[in-house]
Specification:
About 20% of the residues are buried. The chain has a single domain, classed as Electron Transport, Fmn-binding Protein, Chain A (Pnp Oxidase, Chain A), CATH 2.30.110.10. β1 and β2 form a beta hairpin. It has a 7-stranded antiparallel β-sheet with strand order 2-1-5-6-7-4-3, with helices on both faces. The protein starts with 17 loop residues before the first helix and ends in a 34-residue tail after the last helix. By secondary structure, the protein is of the alpha+beta class.
Length: about 200
């Protein structure tokens, strides 16, 4: 058993192990990619990603400002959270990364189908996703981790309770937000591919 903790102050030794990281990257499809502007401001946007060969892979249109910024300053970072997945909340990884921009056909040919399979279900949805994404002027960005900051809140919870860590134990989401009264969410998946 790990040392028993009494509060949230000490979070040393509570990192995400490689097995849990693999589960996180299989469960989560979104990440935050961060870079800096030419005047030094850090910025980040949400991206759908593929974890492949120990690297993050994303895509966007070449005219997006992040492409020029990452070419000029490849130092970047990628943040992934377990929130909204079957892993529950409170598992996060942050990777300091070096970015490489790819516009070759070979990279697109393996990446687009992988991304489509993570985002869509069934042959028809995957085919439509590929048709929409494989367009002129799109690039693939490879983000190669050079160092990590990780946190598995389930390790802390086990320590606070004086229990052994069990990787299958999960915390429910900590987001108590609910839609406003009368709000009805209408899902695109209910509209059908042709709509």
């Amino acid at each position: 058993m790990t040392d028993r903790r009494e509060n949230y102050r000490n979070v040393r030794g509570l990192g995400v192990d490689l097995e849990k990281r693999a589960m996180l990257y299989a469960a989560q499809t979104e990440c935050v990619v961060n870079w800096t502007t030419r005047d030094g401001w850090p910025v980040g946007v949400m991206h759908r990603f593929v974890w492949h060969e120990e690297r993050f892979w994303i895509t966007c249109a070449v005219e997006r400002k992040r492409v020029a910024a990452l070419r000029a300053r490849p130092q970047s970072s990628v943040v992934v959270s377990s929130e909204g997945t079957w892993l529950g909340g409170d598992v996060t990884t942050t990777a300091k990364t070096l970015a490489t921009i790819h516009d070759d056909r070979e990279t697109k040919d393996w990446f687009y189908p992988r991304l489509a399979e993570r985002q869509r279900q069934g042959d028809a949805e995957i085919a439509e996703f590929l048709r929409r994404i494989d367009t002129p002027g799109r690039v693939v960005i490879e983000l190669d981790p050079v160092s990590w900051i990780t946190y598995d809140g389930n390790r802390l919870e086990a320590s606070l309770r004086g229990m052994e860590y069990d990787p299958a134990m999960a915390k429910p989401t900590r987001n108590p937000a609910r839609p406003p009264d009368g709000w009805i969410t209408r899902w695109w998946t209910d509209a059908g591919l042709g709509d």
